[in-house]
Specification:
Elements lengths: L16 H16 L12 E6 L5 H12 L3 E5 L13 H10 L3 E6 L4 H8 L4 E6 L5 H15 L6 E5 L6 H10 L6 E5 L8 H9 L3 E5 L2 H4 L5 E4 L10 H7 L7 H5 L6 E3 L20 H20 L12 E2 L21 E5 L2 E4 L5 E3 L2
Parallel strand pairs: 1-2, 1-3, 3-4, 5-6, 5-8, 6-7, 8-9
Antiparallel strand pairs: 10-11, 11-12, 12-13
Bound molecules: N-carbamoyl-L-aspartate.
The site of N-carbamoyl-L-aspartate has 10 residues, from helix 2 and helix 6.
């Protein structure tokens, strides 16, 4: 089914770590010398397919392409496209990719962007697939850490909030496992803990993590605090969401207990998990972080269009037509034509689209 070898970015794992570094380094150069890059994508078109709300990701990609001299097509409300007539994701993206040189896509189903890439006629960038992954936010976060902390290694990073559904958390944790001597403090309620497959990944990389419930207790030990929103749209019911909202709030008092050089990041949007009074603290870098996002996306678009990145095939596991993924939000349970593909870890199957694990019967 995969007929192409485009440098799709579905998961940062698709690219070698050396290319994450070259993308963030190029972003630093673009930020310093923007005039050099004006017109670098003249005549190129970016298609943006946003099936879910977005402010920063969508606008920073669009601004990136316009600053590079390229053009933009796409939709941010699928109700205004043929999706409303029942068109499949695969068909929509196949057509949109034939009109574009690069496609950027966000969708509520997990594994959906990988599925789209299987039949696309140009590189596809994952701008968020449900509660699964968000690799371009991670490039933004890596650039922010590099520029503001001067390193991606030896950091104690606290993640606080909805660690279960927060796709930015999953992608960033996986990425930080690839650098030396990082430690993680996972701050959440029992209901919103980091998924097991991510914890397995941390352990396999030899990194340490602890799971705690109290932000107050964790904060003094941190170099970086990554706050996140409780992902209301991913909950099964309003009651479940109500039982989890307003639990964590970073305020001035808690900041007083933090190190003088701790930085606060947040992918944004925030709801109430960071009090507005924290915004004036020089350690609060979330707005600056959003700005770095535009430069990293300029760098990513340039690198992808110049074919500077070598990638692996999208599906490398075993196709098992009769086995169905147990994750009700996995794309394979919605688009019938997709090959059901799994990696076998000693009798435990891992879905190649959404990473859900199931026991082989
Ligand atoms: C995040 C997302 O969409 O996952 N936002 C973003 O892209 N900057 C985080 C969120 O929505 O909470």
């Amino acid at each position: 089914m995969t007929k192409n070898n485009f440098p799709h970015l579905i998961d940062l794992d698709n690219y070698p770590v050396s290319s994450w570094d070259s993308i963030t380094n190029l972003a630093i150069d673009i930020k310093r010398n923007p005039h050099i890059y004006v017109g670098a994508c003249n005549g190129k078109i970016m298609g943006t397919l946003f099936y879910e709300p977005s402010t920063r990701t969508q606008m920073s990609f669009q601004s990136a392409m316009l600053r590079l001299g390229g053009g933009i097509i796409g939709f941010d409300n699928p109700a205004n496209s043929s999706v409303a007539k029942g068109e499949s994701i695969m068909d929509t993206t196949k057509i949109a990719s034939s009109y574009s040189d690069i496609l950027v896509m966000r969708h509520p189903l997990e594994g959906s962007v990988k599925a789209a890439a299987l039949t696309a006629d140009c590189p596809v960038i994952n701008a968020g697939d449900g509660g699964h992954l968000h690799p371009t936010q991670t490039l933004t976060d890596l650039l922010t850490l590099k520029a503001e902390k001067g390193t991606l290694s030896g950091l104690t990073v606290g993640f606080c909030g909805d660690l279960k559904n927060g796709r930015t958390v999953h992608s960033l944790l996986k990425a930080l496992c690839c650098y030396e001597n990082n430690k993680f403090v996972l701050i959440s309620t029992d209901e919103l803990k980091v998924p097991t497959y991510i914890k397995n990944r941390i352990s396999a990389s030899g990194k340490e993590y602890t799971e705690v419930r109290s932000l107050e207790e964790a904060i003094p030990s941190l170099d970086v605090l990554y706050m996140t929103r409780i992902q209301r749209e991913r909950f099964g019911s309003e009651e479940e969401y109500n039982s989890q909202k307003h639990i964590f709030c970073l305020d001035k008092k808690k900041m007083n207990a933090a190190r003088k050089d701790m930085i606060v990041l947040h992918p944004l949007p925030r709801v109430d998990e960071i009090a507005v009074e924290v915004d004036d603290d020089p350690r609060a870098l979330y707005f600056k972080q959003a700005n770095y996002g535009m430069y990293v996306r300029m760098s990513l678009v340039l690198s992808v269009l110049n074919e500077n990145i070598k990638t692996k095939p999208l599906l490398t596991g075993a196709v098992m037509p009769k086995v169905c993924c147990h994750n009700p939000k996995c794309i394979t349970n919605f688009e019938q034509s997709l090959p059901h593909s799994f990696h076998n870890h000693g009798g435990v199957l891992e879905c190649e689209y959404c990473d859900e694990r199931l026991l082989l019967e």
